Structures are given as C-alpha cells and as structure tokens.
TrEMBL record:
Pfam families in alphabetical order: ABC_tran
SUPFAM superfamilies tied to this protein: P-loop containing nucleoside triphosphate hydrolases (SSF52540)
Source organism of the structure: Donghicola tyrosinivorans
Lineage per the UniProt record: Bacteria, Pseudomonadati, Pseudomonadota, Alphaproteobacteria, Rhodobacterales
Gene Ontology MF annotations: ATP binding; ATP hydrolysis activity
Name used for this protein in its record: NitT/TauT family transport system ATP-binding protein
Highest taxon, organism lineage: Bacteria
Keyword Nucleotide-binding: yes
Protein's UniProt keywords contain Nuclease: no
Family indicated by similarity: Belongs to the ABC transporter superfamily.
Length: 257
C-alpha cells in the first residue's frame, strides 16, 4: 500500500539572485511500513523533500500525496510526527511536559495525555524521566524525548531530519539500534534524512540517493538485509556491497552535475 507518492515533483525557490531549483523531477513511492533513508550532499534537497511531505514547503509543480491526501490535508489529519535535527525541547517544561505539549494543543483529555506520555517514554526507554528537565538529560536522551513527543499522538508516519547528526558515534550507534527496535514495535512508516552512508544502510529498507542541487534521485536501493540487524552486520559482505552502491550513486550524481 502506497503511503507517500511523488510524481514529477519540482520545487523552485525565488531569491534576490533569481530562481533556485531545489528539487527536479522527483518520482518516488513509499510503501506502508517502509524505513526510507534520504542521503546526498548538503543542499541536495533531502530536507526540502521531507518538508514537502510535511506540508512545510509547497512544490512548484508535480503531485505529492500522503495517505492519499495532499500534504496540507495530511498535516491537519495528524498523519505524521516530525523529529528535527535539534531536540527542540522547551527548557522550562519537564520531559513529560514537552511530550504532552502537542497532546494539550490537540485537546486530548488529561488521562489520555498521561497514558500516552507513559507509553511513549517506555517506547524510547525513558521511563522514570518524566519529571526531569531537558538540561538534566544527555544529548542522546534529549533526542529520544523528542522522538517520544513525535510519537505521542500515534501518527502512522514518522519524519526524521538528521536526528542523530550532532551526536558522537558511540551514542549514534546506540540510538540507531534503539530506533530499529522502536520501528519493529510500532510498524511506523519512517522517512529519515542522513549524511551517513553506514547509518542509511543499517537502518533502511529503501535508500534514496540524491544528487547535488537541483535535487534529483540518482538511485533507489532496496535493501536485502534482514529486518533484525545487530550492529556487527555492518561488517558483512552484503552490507559493504550496499554501501558501495550508495557511494557509487553519490559519485554519479556529482559527475552528472
């Protein structure tokens, strides 16, 4: 079942120096339950495309549907949760208070809010931290709290814009493992922006390789790795082969440019 579908998608920004084409002729189909990573050089349109899905940017031409709706309709229907590069937690609110915020805005009852906070904290392995403040948590724990906030209203789609990019490699590895477990438990459809080839290969069922601006898709790689993936799978020949294809796709995009 197709959850996100883009056809001949183009987006051009107007600037003082003239028009800038951020996306060109993007065609992509994302199925229910897919974990799709977008990878490419800075400025290639990865985040722009994610923002189009979220209804935060509007394509110049072409079509884009989310659950059969326009992105704006999907946003109003609470079809997705969005995790930004920075955790973006309010320092004056507890972790529980940060997770409750969208639920308060949406008008959930206090009892429902409490249950959803409890459930999502458990999902991201932060049970017991509800009354802590963001400054009392490590960077990795703050980002997990941010993921919990995006999961709180139980949207089917989770959009993640380089959520682990600022973290050190050890913490990043742990969060990659935790995210795969969370995905297995929730069966969400995930769109994930990254600059890391190993991260893209480790996490994804599908890897979308993009070229420098204007952003075009140079390759869509269907992963042959099993859904259960210990970290040491990254040493396997199959993993290395997929990573090589991603690297070749990135190189081809630069050559075409």
């Amino acid at each position: 079942m197709s959850v996100i579908e883009a056809k001949a998608l183009n987006l051009t920004f107007q600037s003082n120096d003239g028009p800038i084409q951020a996306l060109r002729d993007v065609n992509l189909n994302i199925e229910k339950g897919d974990f799709v990573s977008f990878i490419g050089p800075s400025g290639c349109g990865k985040t722009t495309f994610l923002r189009c899905i979220a209804g935060l940017e509007h394509p110049t031409s072409g079509t884009l549907t989310v659950n059969g709706m326009t992105p704006d309709e999907a946003r109003k229907a609470r079809a997705y949760g969005y995790v930004f590069q920075a955790a973006g937690l309010y320092p004056w609110r507890t972790i529980g208070g940060n997770i409750r915020l969208p639920l308060e805005i949406m008008g959930f009852s206090k009892s429902d809010q409490a249950e959803r906070v409890r459930k999502t904290l458990d999902l991201v392995d932060l049970s017991g931290f509800e009354k802590k403040f963001p400054w009392q948590l490590s960077g990795g724990m703050q980002q997990r709290a941010s993921i919990a906030r995006a999961l709180a209203f139980d949207a089917d789609i989770l959009l993640m814009d380089e959520p682990f990019g600022a973290l050190d490699e050890i913490v990043r590895d742990k969060l990659n493992e935790a995210l795969l477990k969370l995905w297995a438990r929730t069966e969400k459809t995930i769109g994930f922006v990254t600059h890391s080839i190993p991260e893209a290969v480790y996490l994804s069922t599908k890897i979308v390789v993009m070229s420098p601006r204007p952003g075009r898709i140079t390759d869509v790689i269907e992963s042959t790795l099993p859904r259960e993936r210990p970290l040491d799978i990254r040493d396997s020949a199959e993993f290395i082969q997929i990573a090589h294809r991603v690297r070749e796709g990135l190189r081809a995009g630069h050559i075409d440019d």
